């Protein structure tokens, strides 16, 4: 066995704070962020933030929509969802409590990460709602954390009602995303 195969570093949030560039930290493993996404991804991200902000405002909820803000999950895990919805005002710095919802906009370079690895991390850390938007076909998947702590697909018709922050009922009109 080579010496490199035996050495697998385990990084912490303290290491992460000193790195240059864009990184996530998954259970102590450094994950390089991909280069900036293309316009279609960015446009869908902007629409998604708008849809969520409008729904929160119309419901009169005390929640905030954040784009690409790091979530410090644990001493060895930092994630950067494309979109996070947090209860209350936006944090001064990074997100440090479990978001009410996270959303990822798929791209060729992140598709597997978002659909498999980040989904597992969000589920493991009890994120109640996970929304996945695909700019290739303008589709949206909505997952809800079930009683058994596993994600369940929620039908979208093209509107969906969901509850965040315990008492805030949102009506999301997801048709907007495909326009």
Topology pattern, helix = H, strand = E = HHEEHEEEEEHEEEEE
Number of helices: 4
Cα-based radius of gyration, to the nearest Å: 17 Å
CATH superfamily (homologous) name = tt1808, chain A
> Major sheet, described briefly?
6 strands, mixed
Give the helix/strand class: alpha+beta
How far apart the termini lie comes to: 54 Å
| Range of helix content | 10-25%
Summed up, the domain count is 1
The overall average pLDDT, rounded, is 88
Give the overall shape, derived from the CA principal axes.
globular
Beta-strand content estimate: 25-35%
CATH fold title: tt1808, chain A
Model regions low in confidence, pLDDT < 50 over at least 5 residues: none
Which architecture name does CATH use? Alpha-Beta Complex
Please write the CATH class name.
Answer: Alpha Beta
Q: How many DSSP E strands?
A: 12
Strand order of the largest sheet: 3-6-7-8-9-10
Q: Can you lay out the helices and strands and say which pair or pack?
A:
Elements lengths: L2 H4 L6 H4 L6 E4 L2 E4 L6 H21 L3 E5 L3 E4 L2 E3 L3 E5 L13 E5 L5 H14 L4 E6 L4 E7 L5 E4 L4 E6 L3 E6 L6
Parallel strand pairs: 7-8
Antiparallel strand pairs: 1-2, 3-6, 4-5, 6-7, 8-9, 9-10, 11-12
